[in-house]
Q: What sequence folds into this?
Protein backbone atom coordinates (compact mmCIF):
# COMPACT_ATOMS: atom_id res chain seq x y z
CA UNK A 1 0.00 0.00 0.00
CA UNK A 2 2.83 2.42 0.76
CA UNK A 3 4.43 4.03 -2.25
CA UNK A 4 7.67 5.48 -0.85
CA UNK A 5 9.92 3.59 -3.28
CA UNK A 6 10.89 6.68 -5.25
CA UNK A 7 11.82 8.58 -2.09
CA UNK A 8 13.81 5.64 -0.74
CA UNK A 9 15.79 5.34 -3.99
CA UNK A 10 16.57 9.04 -4.00
CA UNK A 11 17.79 9.13 -0.40
CA UNK A 12 18.93 5.61 0.44
CA UNK A 13 22.28 5.75 -1.36
CA UNK A 14 23.24 8.82 0.70
CA UNK A 15 22.48 7.32 4.13
CA UNK A 16 26.11 7.35 5.24
CA UNK A 17 26.09 11.13 5.01
CA UNK A 18 23.32 12.03 7.46
CA UNK A 19 23.24 15.75 6.90
CA UNK A 20 23.19 15.42 3.12
CA UNK A 21 20.56 12.69 3.31
CA UNK A 22 18.35 14.87 5.50
CA UNK A 23 18.63 17.79 3.08
CA UNK A 24 17.77 15.59 0.13
CA UNK A 25 14.80 14.05 1.96
CA UNK A 26 13.44 17.48 2.88
CA UNK A 27 13.77 18.63 -0.74
CA UNK A 28 11.92 15.54 -1.92
CA UNK A 29 9.15 16.22 0.60
CA UNK A 30 8.75 19.78 -0.66
CA UNK A 31 8.75 18.52 -4.25
CA UNK A 32 6.03 15.96 -3.54
CA UNK A 33 3.84 18.52 -1.79
CA UNK A 34 4.08 20.81 -4.82
CA UNK A 35 3.66 18.14 -7.47
CA UNK A 36 1.13 15.83 -5.79
CA UNK A 37 -1.44 18.00 -4.00
CA UNK A 38 -4.48 16.06 -2.85
CA UNK A 39 -2.65 12.71 -3.13
CA UNK A 40 -2.67 10.04 -0.42
CA UNK A 41 0.70 9.80 1.32
CA UNK A 42 0.40 6.00 1.37
CA UNK A 43 -0.91 4.97 -2.07
CA UNK A 44 -0.78 8.28 -4.00
CA UNK A 45 -4.48 7.91 -4.72
CA UNK A 46 -6.87 10.83 -4.78
CA UNK A 47 -7.90 12.30 -1.45
CA UNK A 48 -10.19 15.16 -0.51
CA UNK A 49 -7.25 17.48 0.33
CA UNK A 50 -8.51 17.86 3.91
CA UNK A 51 -6.34 14.94 5.04
CA UNK A 52 -3.06 13.57 3.60
CA UNK A 53 -4.54 10.09 3.14
CA UNK A 54 -7.43 8.36 1.40
CA UNK A 55 -10.26 6.66 3.25
CA UNK A 56 -9.20 3.10 2.37
CA UNK A 57 -5.61 3.57 3.56
CA UNK A 58 -6.76 5.27 6.75
CA UNK A 59 -9.07 2.38 7.63
CA UNK A 60 -6.34 -0.18 6.85
CA UNK A 61 -3.76 1.36 9.20
CA UNK A 62 -2.68 -0.75 12.24
CA UNK A 63 -4.98 0.82 14.81
CA UNK A 64 -4.13 0.01 18.41
CA UNK A 65 -7.44 -1.61 19.30
CA UNK A 66 -8.08 -3.04 21.78
CA UNK A 67 -5.39 -1.76 24.12
CA UNK A 68 -4.80 -1.33 27.83
CA UNK A 69 -6.23 2.10 28.73
CA UNK A 70 -3.43 2.71 31.26
CA UNK A 71 -0.28 1.81 29.27
CA UNK A 72 -1.72 1.37 25.74
CA UNK A 73 -0.21 -2.09 25.38
CA UNK A 74 -1.89 -3.87 22.46
CA UNK A 75 -4.27 -6.62 23.55
CA UNK A 76 -4.82 -8.78 20.47
CA UNK A 77 -7.61 -11.29 20.74
CA UNK A 78 -9.36 -9.44 23.57
CA UNK A 79 -12.99 -8.45 22.92
CA UNK A 80 -12.58 -5.04 24.58
CA UNK A 81 -10.04 -2.73 26.17
CA UNK A 82 -9.23 -3.41 29.82
CA UNK A 83 -6.32 -2.99 32.19
CA UNK A 84 -3.48 -5.39 31.48
CA UNK A 85 -2.11 -7.58 34.27
CA UNK A 86 1.05 -5.50 34.54
CA UNK A 87 -0.88 -2.27 35.15
CA UNK A 88 -3.06 -4.02 37.71
CA UNK A 89 0.05 -5.04 39.63
CA UNK A 90 2.27 -2.00 39.04
CA UNK A 91 0.33 0.97 37.58
CA UNK A 92 2.48 3.64 35.92
CA UNK A 93 2.72 7.21 37.17
CA UNK A 94 0.48 8.54 34.39
CA UNK A 95 -3.29 8.12 34.58
CA UNK A 96 -3.85 6.85 31.06
CA UNK A 97 -2.22 6.52 27.66
CA UNK A 98 -3.64 7.62 24.34
CA UNK A 99 -1.70 5.89 21.56
CA UNK A 100 -3.96 5.35 18.54
CA UNK A 101 -1.67 3.22 16.34
CA UNK A 102 0.66 0.23 16.57
CA UNK A 103 4.28 0.54 15.48
CA UNK A 104 3.87 -1.65 12.41
CA UNK A 105 3.76 -1.52 8.62
CA UNK A 106 3.20 1.93 7.12
CA UNK A 107 3.25 3.63 10.52
CA UNK A 108 6.69 2.21 11.35
CA UNK A 109 8.07 3.43 8.03
CA UNK A 110 6.69 6.90 8.59
CA UNK A 111 8.19 7.06 12.08
CA UNK A 112 11.58 5.93 10.79
CA UNK A 113 11.56 8.56 8.05
CA UNK A 114 10.58 11.21 10.56
CA UNK A 115 13.02 10.24 13.28
CA UNK A 116 16.11 9.26 11.30
CA UNK A 117 15.73 11.35 8.13
CA UNK A 118 14.09 14.41 9.73
CA UNK A 119 11.31 14.28 7.13
CA UNK A 120 8.87 17.13 7.82
CA UNK A 121 6.24 15.52 5.58
CA UNK A 122 6.38 12.29 7.58
CA UNK A 123 6.19 14.28 10.82
CA UNK A 124 3.18 16.26 9.62
CA UNK A 125 1.36 13.07 8.63
CA UNK A 126 2.13 11.44 11.99
CA UNK A 127 0.86 14.47 13.87
CA UNK A 128 -2.32 14.49 11.78
CA UNK A 129 -2.81 10.79 12.55
CA UNK A 130 -2.42 11.44 16.27
CA UNK A 131 -5.06 14.16 16.17
CA UNK A 132 -7.39 12.03 14.03
CA UNK A 133 -7.02 9.13 16.45
CA UNK A 134 -7.98 11.12 19.57
CA UNK A 135 -11.52 12.11 20.56
CA UNK A 136 -12.38 15.78 20.88
CA UNK A 137 -12.80 15.37 24.63
CA UNK A 138 -9.18 14.21 24.91
CA UNK A 139 -7.86 17.08 22.80
CA UNK A 140 -9.73 19.53 25.04
CA UNK A 141 -8.45 17.99 28.32
CA UNK A 142 -4.82 19.17 28.80
CA UNK A 143 -3.69 22.48 30.23
CA UNK A 144 -0.06 22.05 29.12
CA UNK A 145 2.07 19.75 26.96
CA UNK A 146 5.47 18.35 27.97
CA UNK A 147 7.53 16.65 25.25
CA UNK A 148 9.84 13.76 26.09
CA UNK A 149 13.26 15.40 25.65
CA UNK A 150 16.31 13.91 24.03
CA UNK A 151 19.60 14.52 25.75
CA UNK A 152 21.24 17.57 24.05
CA UNK A 153 24.08 15.41 22.74
CA UNK A 154 21.69 13.00 21.05
CA UNK A 155 19.63 15.87 19.67
CA UNK A 156 22.78 17.34 18.11
CA UNK A 157 23.72 13.97 16.62
CA UNK A 158 20.26 13.42 15.16
CA UNK A 159 19.83 17.01 14.07
CA UNK A 160 16.52 17.62 15.86
CA UNK A 161 14.39 16.50 18.81
CA UNK A 162 11.39 14.63 17.43
CA UNK A 163 9.32 14.81 20.63
CA UNK A 164 9.64 18.57 20.87
CA UNK A 165 8.98 18.94 17.12
CA UNK A 166 5.64 17.15 17.53
CA UNK A 167 4.67 18.79 20.83
CA UNK A 168 5.50 22.30 19.68
CA UNK A 169 3.18 22.02 16.68
CA UNK A 170 0.46 20.29 18.66
CA UNK A 171 0.62 22.95 21.37
CA UNK A 172 0.23 25.63 18.71
CA UNK A 173 -2.83 23.90 17.24
CA UNK A 174 -4.45 23.33 20.62
CA UNK A 175 -3.41 26.78 21.90
CA UNK A 176 -1.64 25.31 24.92
CA UNK A 177 1.62 26.20 26.68
CA UNK A 178 4.62 23.98 26.01
CA UNK A 179 6.73 23.18 29.07
CA UNK A 180 10.19 21.69 28.54
CA UNK A 181 11.73 19.09 30.80
CA UNK A 182 15.46 18.55 31.16
CA UNK A 183 17.35 15.29 31.10
CA UNK A 184 19.66 15.19 34.09
CA UNK A 185 21.84 12.61 32.40
CA UNK A 186 22.28 10.88 29.07
CA UNK A 187 20.79 7.49 29.85
CA UNK A 188 22.20 4.38 28.14
CA UNK A 189 20.22 2.96 25.23
CA UNK A 190 16.97 1.23 26.14
CA UNK A 191 17.36 -1.40 23.43
CA UNK A 192 17.55 -4.93 24.71
CA UNK A 193 16.33 -4.02 28.21
CA UNK A 194 13.20 -5.43 29.79
CA UNK A 195 10.61 -3.28 31.55
CA UNK A 196 12.22 -3.31 34.97
CA UNK A 197 15.67 -2.58 33.51
CA UNK A 198 14.25 0.31 31.47
CA UNK A 199 12.58 1.72 34.58
CA UNK A 200 15.81 1.57 36.61
CA UNK A 201 17.76 3.03 33.70
CA UNK A 202 15.47 6.09 33.68
CA UNK A 203 15.02 6.61 37.41
CA UNK A 204 15.47 10.31 38.18
CA UNK A 205 16.41 11.07 34.57
CA UNK A 206 14.16 14.14 34.22
CA UNK A 207 13.57 17.40 36.05
CA UNK A 208 11.06 20.21 35.41
CA UNK A 209 11.85 23.59 36.88
CA UNK A 210 8.61 25.37 35.90
CA UNK A 211 5.42 25.00 37.94
CA UNK A 212 2.88 22.91 36.08
CA UNK A 213 -0.91 23.21 35.90
CA UNK A 214 -3.16 20.39 37.07
CA UNK A 215 -3.73 18.57 33.77
CA UNK A 216 -0.59 17.75 31.80
CA UNK A 217 0.01 15.62 28.70
CA UNK A 218 3.35 14.04 27.83
CA UNK A 219 4.11 13.81 24.11
CA UNK A 220 6.35 11.33 22.29
CA UNK A 221 6.46 9.65 18.91
CA UNK A 222 6.65 5.96 19.94
CA UNK A 223 5.79 4.29 23.24
CA UNK A 224 7.60 1.02 23.91
CA UNK A 225 7.17 -0.08 27.53
CA UNK A 226 6.19 3.30 28.95
CA UNK A 227 9.28 3.50 31.18
CA UNK A 228 10.45 6.82 29.71
CA UNK A 229 7.00 8.37 29.93
CA UNK A 230 6.60 7.02 33.45
CA UNK A 231 9.83 8.63 34.60
CA UNK A 232 8.82 11.94 33.03
CA UNK A 233 5.38 11.67 34.67
CA UNK A 234 7.08 11.43 38.09
CA UNK A 235 8.93 14.68 37.33
CA UNK A 236 5.65 16.34 36.28
CA UNK A 237 3.92 15.33 39.50
CA UNK A 238 6.87 16.69 41.47
CA UNK A 239 6.48 19.99 39.57
CA UNK A 240 2.85 20.38 40.66
CA UNK A 241 0.79 18.49 38.11
CA UNK A 242 -2.29 16.76 39.50
CA UNK A 243 -2.98 14.36 36.62
CA UNK A 244 -0.72 13.24 33.79
CA UNK A 245 -1.63 11.53 30.53
CA UNK A 246 0.79 10.00 28.03
CA UNK A 247 0.21 10.59 24.30
CA UNK A 248 2.17 8.98 21.51
CA UNK A 249 1.51 8.16 17.90
CA UNK A 250 2.39 4.48 17.94
CA UNK A 251 2.84 1.67 20.46
CA UNK A 252 5.33 -1.14 20.08
CA UNK A 253 3.47 -4.47 20.14
CA UNK A 254 3.89 -6.77 23.13
CA UNK A 255 6.21 -9.27 21.49
CA UNK A 256 8.62 -6.44 20.56
CA UNK A 257 8.60 -4.76 23.97
A:
Amino acid sequence: MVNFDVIDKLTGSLSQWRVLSTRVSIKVDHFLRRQLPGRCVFCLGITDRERPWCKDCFVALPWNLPACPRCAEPLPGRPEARLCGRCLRHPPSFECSRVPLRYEQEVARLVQRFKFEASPRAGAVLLALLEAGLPETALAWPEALVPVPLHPRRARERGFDQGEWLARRLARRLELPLVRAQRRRDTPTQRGLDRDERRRNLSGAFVIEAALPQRVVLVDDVMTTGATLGSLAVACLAAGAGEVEAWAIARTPLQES
